[in-house]
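A reminder before we start the practical. When you read a complex entry, don't treat the lines as separate problems. The point of joint prediction is that each chain is placed relative to the others, so the output describes one connected object in space. Small molecules and nucleic acid strands, if listed, are placed in the same frame. In the example below there are two entries. Take a minute to note the order of the lines before looking further.
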Amino acid sequence: DTEVTQTPKHLVMGMTNKKSLKCEQHMGHRAMYWYKQKAKKPPELMFVYSYEKLSINESVPSRFSPECPNSSLLNLHLHALQPEDSALYLCASSQELLALSTDTQYFGPGTRLTVL
Amino acid sequence: KQEVTQIPAALSVPEGENLVLNCSFTDSAIYNLQWFRQDPGKGLTSLLLIQSSQREQTSGRLNASLDKSSGRSTLYIAASQPGDSATYLCATSGTYKYIFGTGTRLKVLA
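Here is the predicted structure of the whole assembly.
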């Protein structure tokens, strides 16, 4: 099984709402990632978890709060978002943090987020 | 800081044509370079991964090359089909993360 799943597929929320995105993998990977992708732009890294600990935070605003409750699950908690946060949020996983020439990330299908 | 650029930004070709997509990067200290395909509103599908010590990789109608010294990679698609229509992204693997290129939006006309 080389699948990364993400729920929900679509999410519409107001600026005062609190919501969460969920990502799951059962490949035994120990590194998981959140990316944000605006329309017609490449994905931009937000957070990286390794062995359930936050390794990289790419200076993301605090209204985005990641959580890794176990090795298979990664959440992204959203609160007080702005309309410009509307984007496709992609989750990915890899065996370990990328550090070998054979390492690759497996991507989920994404959550399309719209902030009104 | 790694910068990855793809040319052209968009491409429209008739079915059956062979085509080349280009990817340039500024820092040659990479672990590998990967080509992805993305359909509209969807996630990324890995097409080919070229390790830093390799020169090329092939999968079916796809061939990707890597020249680290010049900071370039190309993706060659043979006998293009309408089903190849998508955005193609290259990404360099550096310390712990990918840096993605700007993408090429490909449309293959039937």
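Discuss with your neighbour: The interface with chain A takes residues 31-32, 34, 36, 41-46, 49, 51-53, 89, 93-98, 100-103, 105 of chain B (CB under 8 Å). What might explain this?
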